[in-house]
Amino acid sequence: MNLIRKFATAAAMTALMTASALAQTVLKSSDTHPDGYPTVEGVKYFGELVKQRTNGRYSVEVYHSAQLGQEKDTIEQVRSGVIELNRVSMAPFNGTVKETIVPALPYLFRSEEHMHKVMDGAIGDQIKAAFEPAGLVVLAFYDAGARSFYNKTKPINSVADMKGLKFRVIQSDIFVDMVAALGANATPMPYGEVYSAIETGVIDGAENNFPSYDTAKHFEVAKNYSLDEHTILPEVFVMNKGAWDKLTPEDQAIFKQAATESVAKQRELWAAKVAESRKIVEAAGSQITTPEKQGFIDAMKPVYDKHVTDEVLKKMVADVQAVQ
C-alpha cells in the first residue's frame, strides 16, 4: 500500500507540475526598433509587471529589431491574432482608425508636454475606443518625440530648400501629402529599407526623431538634420482584442495598470535617449539646423483641408488645440 501511495503521490505531483506549466501563457510582442530602444524597454517593463502581478501566469516575449516583420506586417498579425501584442507607430492606422488622423497631423501639438496632456486625457480615451472595432485594444501611448527631416544633399533652412528632394515617409497618406505640400517628393517604404535607399540614391533622406536617426545609423548616410519638428506623433501599444477578452476582469485590471506604469518608464527612458542620440550624431559630424517654422506651418493648410473632413475630426482638432 505504501508503494501504491508513493506512486500516486508522484503521479499527482507530476500532474500538478504539468498543469502549472500549461497555466503560463506567453504573449508575443513585436517592435521594429533594436533591443534597448525606449519603446522596447517600455514593453519589457510592462511584461515584468504583468508576470509579477499574475504570479507568472502571463509573461511577455518581446521580438525587437523587426524579427516578426515590418510594421505593416505586424499590424495584420496582431489584428488576426497571430501575435498578441504590438508596439507600432500610429500613422499606419490612419486608413483603418480615422481618429488616428488627428495626432498624425503636422504641427498640431505645440510641444511634447502638450501631446502628453492630450493623449493622457479624454481625447486619448476617444482614440483608444476607436481601435476596438478594428479588433485591437490600446494599452498605452508611448513617446516618439518630434519628427524632423534629414537628407544627404543640403541643409534645410526654409521651405524653399525642400523643393525637389525625395524623402522616405511612413506608409501614411498624411505624410505623403505633407511632403508634397512642402514641394518635395514622398516615397513610402518600410523603415528597414531606408538606410540602403539613401545610400544608393533612391531617396535623398527621410524624417524621424533623433533616437531613430541614431540607432538606425541613418546619420551615416544623411548628415543634414533639420529641426523643423513637423510631427509629434505618439506610438501605440496594442493588444489583440480576442486575447484581451480572454482575460478575467482582474487580469485586465492588472494589464491596464502595468501599461500605465510602463508609460512613465518609457517617457523617462525616451528623454534620456533623445539627449544621448543627439550627442552621438553631432559627434559623428551631422549638421543640425533650426529652420524658421512658420513657412512650414503655413504650407499645411491643404493637408488639413484634405484629411480633416468630417465633424468628428474637426471637433477633435479643435479640442486638441484648446488643451493648455
TrEMBL record:
The keyword Signal applies. It comes from the Bacteria. Keywords: Receptor, Signal. Pfam families: DctP. GO terms for molecular function: carbohydrate binding. GO terms for biological process: transmembrane transport. GO terms for cellular component: outer membrane-bounded periplasmic space. InterPro entries: DctP_fam, TRAP_DctP, TRAP_DctP_sf. Residues 1-23 form the signal peptide. Gene3D superfamilies: Bacterial extracellular solute-binding protein, family 7 (3.40.190.170). NCBIfam families: dctP, TRAP_S1. This is Tripartite ATP-independent transporter solute receptor, DctP family. It comes from Mesorhizobium australicum.
